[in-house]
Protein 1
Amino acid sequence: MATKIILDCDPGHDDAVAILLALGAPAHIEVLGLTVVGGNVSLQGTVTNALRVLMLANREEVAVYAGCPRPLVREMVTAEHVHGESGLDTASGELLAVPKTTAREKHAVNYIIDTIRQSESKSVTLVATGPLTNVAAAFAMAPDIVDELKQLVIMGGAFHEPGNITPAAEFNIYVDPHAARSVFESGAAITVFGFDITHQMRITPARLKSIQNNAGRTGKVVADFLDFFNQYDMSKYGWDGAPLHDPCTVAWLIDPTLFEGSQMAVTVDTTDGPNFGRTVADWYAVTEQKPNALVISHGDSDRFFELIIKRLATL
Ligand code: BDR
Ligand code: CA
């Protein structure tokens, strides 16, 4: 049976691929709805981009819900320096078509709560590929849903790897560390894909070409926007391609044999100073802290990209 997911995202190039991968794998994933949060760009921009991506996939019937425009406590931080002004800029300069649809009336946080409450117990998986504001707000408003969720799959954090927005912090966690901390302390069944794994999944020139040539009509558009996405990381870090962070979450749900990890205790540092927003994992169980997350550390990058290309080609 397909895994029912709510995808909470801030598209964003890699979020866009996560959405498309989920839509391209109907035997494994049923997308109940997209909930959107402010992150890579403003909420208005991330909602527009979610609608654009659905239009690209000819799946405008999938419902989009706008969520929180800003973090719980701190001021908003965005990432136009990585994703461009639109949040989904392309190398060719031709943006994805303007959506004909709009977000639904309901707030994303209410949608998350209502959907989990109205579904069979432990049948819904929440996937979070942006700042954790919507998820934290839902857990705070309706703590009963934490145990009703099947699982929460997060892209966020950096354990052994350095950060990308401060030396210590990964962007999604840094934007709303207070939300992230409350989510990691919630007791939800969490699987987390941080930089330790996502940095292994780089969009090399050969992979970009393969997306362009072998992933059909959608692949051509995806290659154009990933070509833009590659530019910042390649010039900033000297890598052979940007890491394709967010789709790791969905790929794991489709084929768990692609990745490996271990259960451990993860905490989020919300104290002021250089470690603000840092995720700390008790890798060697040196404390008595109870494990609260499956931390993914290894994966097969070739098979990961093969899966993406195969699934995009079906859209
Ligand atoms: C994360 O931040 C965003 O820029 C990406 O979409 C990804 O979710 C990587 O730090
Ligand atoms: Ca994201």
Protein 2
Amino acid sequence: MPRLDDVLARLEADEKAGLDRLMDWLRIPSVATDPAHAEDTRRAARWCADRLREAGIDATVEETGTPDKPGAPVVWAQHAGAPGYAGPHVLFYGHYDVQPPDPLDLWESPPFEPVVKPAEPGGPGERVVARGAVDDKGQVSTFLDAVRAWKEAAGGVPVRFTVLIEGEEESGSVNLERFIESRASDLKQCDVALISDTGMPSPTQPGITYGMRGLVYTEIFLHGADQDLHSGLWGGRAPNPNSELVKVLAQLWDDDYRVTIPGFYDDVLPLADEEREEWRRLGFDQVEALRKIGLGPEADVGEAGYSAIEREWARPTAEINGISGGYTGPGAKTVIPAVAGAKVSFRLVADQRPERIRDAFFAWLTECTPKGCRWEFVDHGGGPPGNVARDSAHLQAARRALAGAAGGTEPVLIKSGGSIPVVGMLKEKLGLDTILMGFGLDDDRVHSPNEKFELDCWRLGRRAHTRLIGEFAGAD
Ligand code: BES
Ligand code: MN
Ligand code: MN
């Protein structure tokens, strides 16, 4: 059995080259949701498969979707591990698609021209800035580099694993369920999934995420007249879909920020006192977090009776993500639009089911249909909440690997308000638990202009994955 220290030394020697590789990947604008980037998206998948092949892993690029409506491909690989390997069969999941870079004018450097920015005096360290830097190419690269280091220092990766790196996570993983079903017999061989697509408290405080919220993403349209109308001639005489839509949506919350849809909280479990106490001890500073996004303490708004961290990790929410209708160009135009639309999403917790919440929302809207108007509903997908084991042997291995990579600092157990659809899918379809070992920070500007990944976090991720492979293989 090769010595872990040799592999870690190889990993460190490869650091500069590893960063260059990541920058190459970040140069590919794999905005999968935008058909104009379909070829770039494919290129990003091939790039990833090529890097795995260089590390001795026989990766392929697999089509998803249907022939008339192809999805973004999945990077897929199966690796047997060392002869006599007795550890778990690990499913490594990640995503190579990225969010659209808009609004472009707020980027300090172009989103697909990655730059390494030096430490600011007194500020945090060097970071790589680009769309996808931390979500999720940068985090996936920490796994790719670990695999490469094992190959180069030890002749191969001792662990048995399967790789599934998809290209539609940022648009709801709509083709993934079918892909997973088509590979179910292979995936059933896996014992645990490993995902690096979440965050940690600080560059020196590693964390393991044991729960994420689920998501329902809908779009609704309220139709009025069959044409746009002059608001002087028709205002007061016919319904205005813009005005009626906002009147309905304003009723989605009560004064305590509780969602008013009947049955919405039916499958939400009350928070256990011990869990609340454990989270309180993490010492999360909401006032400081608000300050970092330009807000004062009075902006600590949300469901009454819960702390900010409880609201993010354990309470469901409703959000209007977009709203449109009528004239939104420069200057004034007196118009009553024929239609108004809104993108409305819900974050789910505990036993809430996406289909039930979606149906309850649409039923509630139908119940409140404004006179003379009609609704049109679209479901953009999502997934159930992802709650994973806190105490499995696999999680213990990840804890040891992370602590070792962080110079002995024990990781804390955290949750996240974000969603990764595959986590719930793997649990429901295959009974697979996931280890969420993430390296992002709260201020990484995920999905926003100037997204970045701190190099210290990236390095921690590379070491942690290298050590975790060693843990599973029983290396010393
Ligand atoms: N990696 C994120 C989720 C995340 C970000 C978790 C930061 C923890 C910390 C993931 O790529 C994401 O953005 N998910 C989407 C869901 C998707 C269906 C659009 C989300 O949570 O909005
Ligand atoms: Mn992600
Ligand atoms: Mn994302």
